[in-house]
Amino acid sequence: MNLTVDPDDPTPPYEQLRRQLVRLVETGALAPGDRLPPLRQLAGDLGLAVGTVARSYREVEAAGLLVSRRGGGTRVAADVRPTPAPRRLRALADGFRTEARRLGFSDAEIRDALTAALEAG
Amino acid sequence: MNLTVDPDDPTPPYEQLRRQLVRLVETGALAPGDRLPPLRQLAGDLGLAVGTVARSYREVEAAGLLVSRRGGGTRVAADVRPTPAPRRLRALADGFRTEARRLGFSDAEIRDALTAALEAG
DNA sequence: GCGTTTGTGTCACGCCCTTGACACAACACT
DNA sequence: AGTGTTGTGTCAAGGGCGTGACACAAACGC
Hints:
Two copies of one chain form a homodimer.
Chain A: H1 13-27, H2 39-46, H3 50-62, E1 66-69, E2 73-76, H4 85-102, H5 107-120
Antiparallel strand pairs in A: 1-2
The first copy, chain A, binds a DNA duplex through residues 10, 12-14, 38-40, 48-52, 54-55, 57-58, 68-74.
Protein name (chains A, B): GntR family transcriptional regulator
Pfam families (chains A, B): GntR (PF00392)
Keywords (chains A, B): DNA-binding, Pyridoxal phosphate, Transcription, Transcription regulation
């Protein structure tokens, strides 16, 4: 599931987890209905207290992305529609363009850089 | 100077500031020798305590990017070489490629998305 | 030289976060 | 029905962080 917490990051663990969960749902890596790890299991894996993981789940649930039920675990809400892949790609491209232009590069240079990146790996 | 702190972000203010400072120096937005705002002024502008801003300055100085002197203010270290623009562009392109491929897109689709982004604005 | 500016250091106070443990309630499974 | 699982809630304790105020030291500007 690829959830991690960086102890050296001053950002509170519950917030690191929350952002990753939101991202997993919005990107569709977790589909509606998918079950998340139980609180205790995830807490054990990440070296966190149960209450800390519970807070992350609770906040993402409050955002409407998850649904928790006692005994039933926590699952991705059925009505969440992951952002369509084309939209996400476009958002990535927009971000790349904006940052690259901020550095003062021309469109041609930006294209060349992408070509180099694609050919490299 | 475009330094901001988001009160709603659980990330500690000193850390938000620190990251922005590092970024400004590494991108060359702040050149070696450039003077940063005095502690008290920046603290006042951002609505922070002097000690909080001081901590950010201190940590970036510990990283070798700044030099502080009493009465002389805080300046960008003379020996810091901003990461060359071409390298930064290439890093941006690599990041874009990696994320886009993770979404399952082909090289052609990635190129098309960039083209669309460039034409859009 | 003198006053001002500026960074540094300290202190107590309060808030937020994490932890660990525990009890409880609702669901799943047999 | 009974057992185990799972999420929820509480509590006290400790640590990290921000704040505000203050004193101090070093450099600047006149």
